[in-house]
Amino acid sequence: MRYKLEKRREPSTTMLVVTPVASVIVTMLIGILAFDALGVDGWAAVRDIFLTPLLASHKWQDVAVKAAPLVIIALGLSLGNRAQVWNIGAEGQYIIGALCAAGVGLAFGQAGGFFVILLMIAAGVIGGALWALIPAVLRTRFSVNEVLSSLMLTYVSLQVLGYLVGGPWKDPNGRNFPATAPLPESQMLPSLEGSTMHLGIIVALILPFAFWLLMSRSTFGYQVRVVGSSPNAARHGGFDAKQTIWATMLIGGAMAGLAGSLELTGALHKIDLGFPSGYGFTAIIVAFLGRLNPFGCLLAGIVLAVTSVGGQLAKTTVHIPDSTAGIFQAMMLFLILASDILIRYRIAKRA
Amino acid sequence: MTARLELKGITKRFPGVLANDHVGFAVQPGEIHALLGENGAGKSTLVKMIYGIMQPDEGEILWNGARITVANPKAARKLGIGMVFQHFSLFEALTVLENIALGMDANIPARELEAKIRAVMTQYGLLLDPSRVVSTLSVGERQRIEIVRALLLNPSLLIMDEPTSVLTPQEVDQLFVVLRKLASEGCSILYISHKLHEIKALCDTATILRGGKLVDTCEPKVETSRSMAEKMIGGSLKDIKREGRGLGGEKLVVKGLNLPADGPFGTALKDISFTVRAGEIFGVAGVAGNGQNALLLALSGEEPTARHAVTVNGTEVGHMRARDRRGQGVSSVPEERNGHAAVPVFTLADNAILTARDRLGMVNRGLLDAKAARTYAGEVIEAFSVKATGPGAMAESLSGGNLQKYIMGREILQKPQVLVVSQPTWGVDAGAAAAIHQALVDLAAEGSAIVVISQDLDELLSLCDTLAVINGGRLSTPMAVSDAKIDEIGLLMGGIHGEQTPGEVAHAV
């Protein structure tokens, strides 16, 4: 029996939902087989990476803390991706956002309180947006591909971080380690008593609703969708493609910067060389796994956070490197992209 | 006499569609046989089976009396069946000779091939320099390459798919001379078209298809265009009612409009001036690629121009972009439906938002009024008999003709002050075309100014009050349709007006 792909009359909404779920399940199956073949207990590895963080309630706070930045960054990225703007540099915007927040915090010394924290977060948002402005200008003015420029700026931001924490911002009481001094308590985001769950998690839960409203109900969301799917139709309808590139890039950078400042004020409380942990890159997978849908990003952010927490777990239980989680995350992205075709095509028997 | 080609009970099914339903007819040696029908009548499917691109589900094909299966186009060419497609497959950057050599099944040395080409060209008066680069040729000249390519194989049946849709009247005459000469030498010609006066002038027999079925075989020379049209659409044609339309004041004034070319193969607009009054329908004729697209973009505001170049109701709007021009009452329908006039992956309701959101109040404080969009899409579907499942149907799920009706309706029902349309009835069946024409006339009667850009001269002559010809980005002096002469229009379409330099002619194609 031979099969062929046949174009659907209308894109399938079922497949839109089924393919991400299937991608996760198939990733798990491949994982079991691959680890068994390597002589590791495949089921135990996959269980610890995908299921234990969900089943063990003491892991939930870790999942929530890791999911929050992923969801926030992915929301911004998915908006750009809808407009065919490919910002790969969220990691850099996240770093610059965190540095801007830290700079404001340092300027206030030991002073803190609601307004200082708000100012730090605002600085993070603006810093991330300005960092994203560079690829936006390069793209609209000089037709420079934003994939390359935004990615390369990530490495620039790493150098900036290295310079600041190893130089002017180095903690004088830090035994010469390259790191900023821990934030005074008055500059930290409020968190749940006796837990690491901070206010940023609430932000990550509210933002999907705001983005849904923006994407599906507003003229701006419509503009983003038209520019992304038919640039000529957008021009015909009187929508400015350049303006859309600017806006989506800035929002993407602002969200990454927001995530960075929330991570600083809510979770890590200082910046050292280990501060950038790849959230900006993982969020790209979150955006695609979530089908560029705001609520999808929320769910996908949780899934990716589970695998990150699970990866740490599997390191101690089945003794596999924690980079295994990265392999699984990449596999999910690969499978979701590969199964995309099923939304617009169906598999039919060849006559 | 044995027929050159005979089809018996040919049937072809596609999912949900019966494209050909037991079609049978015969083409005699030396006969020019018309295959006539509206878009979607099944003409293309039928010839694709004759040329071996598709296989019939039922029925048989007889070639000189013998039953055959045509496995692929190569097999068809071997039998002696040649085909000239509506869309050419030529490499712009290669010469005529190189293009022909690339398309040959057999490997012939270049010098020998060139000699053969020259022989065919002289024999049929298809004058063309084999060393010319294709990008410098006009559409008519490009078609000659395709014809020469087909004639090199000494075909005994030549299939021509809508060959005149891109030609000037003079080029059409030249083509007919070649085709008649071929037929007189015994080559059969299967001529696909929906242009009735051409079929009357050229063809011996006409087979008429409608909805995949053969409805009649007739002799075009004794039929009238109208009788054939009515057989083609299966109903009676309505005349456009155009009485009671007076011309008012100047609505749209275009003065010294210039626009640089968009890319190396684009056409620049040069010093275009014309005036359209309230109630007037102004036609722009011309062969494809002479600046029609640029003109539409300049008028719709998708390409802003000098401020004073375009004036609407006394307001200078040349510098405004599409959205602001719509605010001044200028609507437009570009030639390309999918991806320009409409977003293929959006619903019809969402596509209503694209151009009607400001004029019909579909935006409230930055948020879209989805209900208003659905209601308006429903009204358009109703008023223009668009075949669609409803406002929620994806634009790409509609047939080309139905999407065209929807897009035309979307603009017309907004009652624009000025409407600029390109190819308003392209790919639309005759019944719907008449409805669209009537809607345009009615809109004009209410005092709007309408610009119709079309390659279909018949359409312009029957619809417009005034006509001008665009060639190489320049517009001729407008003339009243009532005293326009076809010959003169044809010459203008071919680029004979005054001081044009040869370089510009070459650039125009």
UniProtKB/TrEMBL annotation, chain A:
It holds the Pfam family BPD_transp_2. The chain crosses the membrane at residues 12-35, 63-80, 92-108, 114-134, 146-165, 197-215, 245-267, 273-290, 297-314, 326-345. GO terms for molecular function: transmembrane transporter activity. InterPro entries: ABC_transp_permease (IPR001851). GO terms for cellular component: plasma membrane. It comes from the Bacteria. It is a multi-pass membrane protein. Keywords: Cell membrane, Membrane, Transmembrane, Transmembrane helix. The keyword Iron does not apply. It is found in: Cell membrane. This is ABC transporter permease. It comes from Stagnihabitans tardus.
From TrEMBL, chain B:
SMART domains: AAA. One of its GO terms (cellular component) is plasma membrane. PROSITE patterns: ABC_TRANSPORTER_1, ABC_TRANSPORTER_2. InterPro entries: AAA+_ATPase, ABC_carbohydrate_import_ATPase, ABC_transporter-like_ATP-bd, ABC_transporter-like_CS, P-loop_NTPase. Its main location: membrane. It comes from Stagnihabitans tardus. It is found in: Cell membrane. It comes from the Bacteria. Residues 5-236, 254-497 form the ABC transporter domain. This is ATP-binding cassette domain-containing protein. GO terms for molecular function: ATP binding; ATP hydrolysis activity. Keywords: ATP-binding, Cell membrane, Membrane, Nucleotide-binding, Repeat, Sugar transport, Translocase, Transport. Pfam families: ABC_tran (PF00005). It is a peripheral membrane protein. CDD domains: ABC_Carb_Monos_I, ABC_Carb_Monos_II.
